[in-house]
Design brief:
Elements lengths: L7 H13 L4 E5 L14 H12 L7 H24 L5 E6 L4 E9 L4 E15 L1 H7 L13 E14 L6 E11 L9 E11 L5 H16 L5 H12 L1 E2 L4 E2 L3 E8 L4 H13 L1 H12 L6 H20 L2 H7 L6 H4 L17 H12 L8
Parallel strand pairs: 1-2
Antiparallel strand pairs: 2-3, 3-4, 4-5, 5-6, 6-7, 7-10, 8-9
Length: about 375
């Protein structure tokens, strides 16, 4: 079945078949060691949400539970499709739990036929946010009151990074997330917002691939707000910038954060549309590029570009830095975005005859779709 005829129904069926095979799931703990005399316990919100799940979710269920459910369904659909495209590789599945409340599923395919590494992770976290972190959030959310006390929070997100073997096939990333602050009493959260985005990182620039990737996500954005693609594309070009290299990580996509300008259901619908668009964004590109011939020079250039990818993720990416600084965070899940292989060469100079168009694009972002 081609990517063009791979319908949403087919994706759902593939996901159901994937989970029916009951892949081996390893359950791990991701808790930081408790301090002396400290006893960790699940939050009231987390316990109440367990009961809500047992009773069954409805359109009126808390947004956090609906977003969590969507993330896990999307993870199953995408990993099923990626396994089918690879034909050989299988995802390793790790399920993890937090005492304070929450869980996650990390799924990683390594050394497949098509993909060197593909990771799709879902996290669900209940916890207490320190006063300093609460103060930082007030800059974007002034409705948060000044406090010297820690505040309960909830966060859930899905993150995906794919590194193909073939240098003609681009690396891709997407992430969609939801955050709540202060809902421990079971009432409405004090503040909430959505964030996320997607971006394409080619080693060898094929302009038709960049146009396709942007066209699909623009169509998704346009279903909800005509400003979204224009604004979030610009934000993406600014966010994925590597200052010490003077270049972007790739050819962009969209990026947004602290999004709370509409009703929660409207923004949830937007995030769902973007998440469901991913397979249409990426699979047609992979089907065009995965079997193309390539040279040793192409592979060498891919390793150099992956070095830039690692530099951005470890030095500038907000999610990576937040995760590495969070007590009890699962480091393996945070670093699953890293490629298996990368290369740094002293004073490396790119072959501008072969890669001038790519380097120009990384330094000066282009409008791939007329705005």
């Amino acid at each position: 079945m081609s990517a063009k005829t791979f319908t949403a129904l087919g994706v759902a069926a593939a996901a159901a078949a994937f989970w029916s095979q009951k892949p081996a799931i390893q359950t791990v703990e991701c808790e930081a060691p408790p301090k002396k005399d400290e006893k960790k316990k699940s939050s009231k919100t987390a316990e109440d949400d367990k009961k809500r799940k047992l009773e069954g979710l409805t359109p009126d269920s808390p947004m956090r539970l609906r977003m969590e459910t969507f993330n896990k369904q999307l993870q199953a659909e995408i990993t099923a499709r990626l396994e089918k495209l690879d034909g050989v590789g299988k995802f390793k599945v790790d399920s993890w739990n937090r005492v304070e409340g929450g869980d996650g599923i990390s799924m990683v395919l390594q050394d497949g036929k098509v993909f060197e590494k593909a990771g799709v992770g879902v996290s669900v976290v209940y916890g207490m946010l320190p006063p300093a972190a609460v103060a930082q959030m007030r800059a974007q959310h002034p409705n948060i009151a000044v406090t010297k006390e820690a505040m309960p929070f909830f966060a859930t997100g899905i993150s995906c990074v794919i590194h193909p073997h073939n240098p003609n096939a681009p690396t891709v990333h997407f992430n969609y997330r939801y955050f709540e602050l202060g809902s421990e009493d079971g009432g409405e959260p004090v503040s909430w917002w959505f964030g996320g985005g997607c971006d394409l990182t080619p080693t060898i620039l094929y302009e038709e691939d960049a146009v396709h990737f942007h066209r699909v996500i623009k169509e998704a954005c346009d279903k909800h707000d005509p400003r979204y693609y224009r604004d979030f594309k610009k934000w993406c070009d600014e966010y994925f910038y590597i200052p010490h290299r003077g270049e972007r990580r790739g050819v962009g996509g969209i990026f947004f954060d602290d999004l709370d300008d509409k009703k929660p259901d409207e923004l949830f619908a937007f995030v769902q549309t973007c998440g469901k668009a991913f397979l249409d964004q990426y699979i047609p590109i992979m089907e065009r590029r995965k079997d193309m011939p390539f040279s040793d020079d192409d592979k060498h250039w891919q390793q150099i570009r992956r070095g830039r990818y690692v530099e951005f993720n470890l030095v500038y990416d907000r999610g990576t830095k937040f995760g590495l600084l969070t007590p009890g965070a699962r480091i393996e899940s945070i670093l699953m975005t890293m490629p298996l292989t990368a290369r740094w060469e002293y004073m490396h100079e790119p072959d501008l005859k072969a890669h001038a168009r790519l380097m120009e694009t990384l330094r000066v972002p282009r409008d791939w779709i007329p705005l």
